[in-house]
Amino acid sequence: MSNIVVQTWDEKKFASCRDEWTRLLENSRSDQLFMSWEWQFTWWQMFAKKNQMQLRLYAAVDANNTLVGIAPLYLSTSYTKKIIPTRRLQFIGNCWRDRATMPTELLDFMVAKEQSQQVIRAIFAHLRASNEWDELILTNLRKDSETYEIARTEQTLPGCYLRHAEEYDSYFLDTTGDFEQYLAGLGKSTRLRLFNRRKILEASGRVNFRSLTDNDEAFDLLNQLHAMRWGKPVFLCERLRFNVELAALLVDRGALRFSVLCVDSSPISIQYNYNINNHVYNIQAGFDPSFHKKLALGYLHFGYEIEQAFNDETLAYDFLAGQGKNTPYKQRLTDTALAIVDLQIVRKLPLKLLLRTYDGLRKGGYLQTQGFTQAAPIFLVNSLFSLPYIINKARNIKCKTPDAASNM
């Protein structure tokens, strides 16, 4: 019998547990930035109230009352197909397929290394005993994690339908080797953009770097240069406040770094990074695309940062998930990636029927069959939900028609 007890912490405890949380994080395999108290609590402060999220912060303790696990979750209500109320339990850090927040990667249950599997099973047992959720969404979960393996291979939540809602890669570069060897292994075009065209940049003026210490100035510059590339600022409103608050918390640990590439005195590119335990995370970047038609400033700035990472004590440079505007630049800069999954564990019967039908159609190849677009089978699945509408209309009850297609 397990000696692990799972408790429920409230918001007051969440606010005061920084030291306990950090000690556990350091003794876990969880990501040291995204699973940090600073990231998680700041995210909760910025986005919870506005989005009507209910905290479900579960803490696992052993027989000695030592903290050995944390499951940072919250409960909210969404409407599948706009008519099925669904009580969704998910990780703090994302609002899956719903309102825009600050996206968070590499999430998991945070558990002590020496008791990891036992604690994960205890958390799942606690979730199994709860009747307040209809689906559990484990977003941005590493496929090599113990949480994923236990959820996939063991009957931790019997009667539920488990599916891979989305899969993608998170890219990083091992920087413990030699920079010259790294360059030699790149494609010719990538090497040209990343390194060889520095001479064109250097012919344009005096190249220098600034590390901004004024966070307000730094985020203003990031938004300005990002808008030049993408047509809009990257951080506004709650997203901006989140990053400002997070930066203020992590600057005390020496983790925050704004790298500003300048020619003469003019900033032309900026990177917003964190360095946690010699692991660099590239959160965002921006540059002036009109500076020189032959230069890809984003690549060049990465080249300088990557070279520095190889030459100092940095162990890894993390590009994270996502794609570039025009090219898949991350795949060109590294061939190393973590496989990530959004794991959807469904308990509610109507939703299980809907998703099993959709997945069956997709697996059977109907989404690719000649004469069927992807929207066509989804339209067929929608017919499962047309009966309530018909009945309501017959009773003269106002009811919106379900959409013909949606993102499953």
Q: Give the H and E element order.
A: EHHHEEEEHEHEHHHEHHEEEHEHEHHH
Overall 3D shape: globular
What's the CATH topology name of the largest domain? Aminopeptidase
CATH superfamily label of the largest domain: Gcn5-related N-acetyltransferase (GNAT)
Structural class: alpha+beta
Number of helices: 15
CATH class of the largest domain: Alpha Beta
Largest sheet descriptor = 13 strands, mixed
Query: Uncertain segments of ≥5 residues (pLDDT<50)?
Result: 367-381, 383-408
Instruction: Tell how many strands the DSSP assignment holds.
Output: 13
As a percent range, the share of helical residues equals: 25-40%
| Residue fraction in strands | 25-35%
Mean pLDDT, all residues: 89
Task: Report what the structure shows.
- 37% of the residues lie in helices and 26% in strands.
- With 408 residues, the chain is an alpha+beta fold.
- The chain folds into three domains: 5-167 and 342-347, Gcn5-related N-acetyltransferase (GNAT) (Aminopeptidase); 176-314, 3-Layer(aba) Sandwich (Aminopeptidase); 351-394, no CATH class.
- Strands 1, 2, 3, 4, 5, 6, 7, 8, 9, 10, 11, 12 and 13 form a 13-stranded mixed beta sheet that branches.
- Strand 2 and strand 3 (67-80) form a beta hairpin.
- Helix 4 packs across helix 5 (146-153) and helix 13 packs antiparallel against helix 14 (375-382).
List its salient traits:
408 residues, alpha+beta, Aminopeptidase, 13-stranded mixed beta sheet, 13 strands, globular
List the helices and strands and how they pair.
Blueprint: E1 5-9, H1 11-16, H2 18-26, H3 37-47, E2 54-61, E3 67-80, E4 84-91, E5 110-111, H4 116-129, E6 135-142, H5 146-153, E7 161-174, H6 179-184, H7 188-196, H8 198-203, E8 207-211, H9 215-230, H10 237-250, E9 256-263, E10 266-276, E11 279-287, H11 297-311, E12 316-320, H12 329-333, E13 337-346, H13 349-363, H14 375-382, H15 386-394
Parallel strand pairs: 4-6, 11-12
Antiparallel strand pairs: 1-2, 2-3, 3-4, 3-5, 6-13, 7-12, 7-13, 8-9, 9-10, 10-11
Helix pairs in contact: 3-10, 4-5, 7-11, 13-14
